[in-house]
């Protein structure tokens, strides 16, 4: 059995590799020119999963990536429960070390973010940046803080309109308002 200090080191190194992997995939996705502000987050996430699964970095590091993963709370389902209503998380990264008899798992929850309001070209609907900032905090950050998502989860924001700095400014406003 590994001691907690070694597990923490292994888990930290694994999480770092997962972040590198998704960063590489997002860079590739952007270079293909297919990311635009009309995309829904599931489409962006699935494109990223496909790119991560094909990346040599993933296979050389033994990282398995799954999407829309049901969260396992350790309990078995009963006849009155259904797997269809289980909480799901956007990405699960997993690696097993047989010599260490240890499996590392890391999760990411993704949300679309916009810096400004705009009209979607696909359906002419008005998209409120503020709505997505609130959603990121209420359905993402709050779910991590309350234990709805596992503690080894990080948030991922797809900034599809405006700059990252503008989107962060909007998020910080919502965080201070909602979480205060």
Care to describe what's here?
The protein is α+β, with helices and mostly antiparallel strands. The chain is 44% helix and 24% strand. The chain has five helices and six strands. It has helices spanning 4-31, 41-54, 56-60, 129-145, 164-178, and strands at 64-70, 88-97, 102-114, 118-119, 126-127, 153-161. The strands form two sheets. Strands 1-2-3-6 form a four-stranded mixed beta sheet, with helices on both faces. It has a two-stranded antiparallel ribbon with strand order 4-5. Helix 1 packs across helix 2 and helix 4 (129-145) crosses helix 5 (164-178).
Short structural summary:
This protein has 180 residues and is α+β, with helices and mostly antiparallel strands. The chain has five helices and six strands.
Q: Gyration radius, to the nearest Å? A: 18 Å
Structural class determined from secondary elements:
alpha+beta
Regarding quaternary structure, how should these chains be classified?
single chain
Number of helices: 5
Strand content: 15-25%
Characterize the overall form: globular
Q: Biggest β-sheet, characterized? A: 4 strands, mixed
The overall strand count is 6
Which stretches are low in confidence, meaning pLDDT under 50 for 5 or more residues running? none
Tell me the helix content.
Answer: 40-55%
- The sequence of SSEs as H and E is HHHEEEEEHEH
Spatial gap, N to C terminus: 41 Å
Mean pLDDT equals: 90
The spatial strand order of the largest sheet comes to 1-2-3-6
């Amino acid at each position: 059995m590994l001691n907690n200090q070694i597990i923490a080191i292994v888990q930290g190194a694994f999480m770092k590799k997962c972040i590198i992997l998704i960063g590489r995939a997002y860079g590739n996705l952007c270079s293909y020119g297919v990311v635009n502000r009309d995309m829904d987050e599931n489409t962006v996430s699935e494109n990223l999963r496909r790119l991560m699964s094909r990346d040599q970095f993933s296979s050389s590091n033994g990282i398995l990536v799954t999407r829309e993963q049901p969260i396992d709370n350790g309990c078995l389902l009963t006849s009155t429960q259904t797997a269809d209503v289980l909480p799901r998380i956007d990405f699960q990264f997993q690696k097993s070390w047989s010599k260490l008899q240890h499996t590392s798992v890391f999760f990411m929850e993704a949300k679309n973010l916009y810096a400004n309001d705009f009209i979607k070209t696909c359906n002419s609907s008005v998209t409120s940046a503020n709505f997505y900032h609130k959603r990121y905090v209420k359905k993402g950050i709050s779910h991590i803080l309350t234990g709805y998502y596992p503690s080894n989860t990080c948030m991922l924001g797809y900034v599809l309109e405006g700059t990252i700095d503008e989107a962060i400014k909007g998020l910080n406003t919502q965080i201070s308002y909602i979480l205060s």
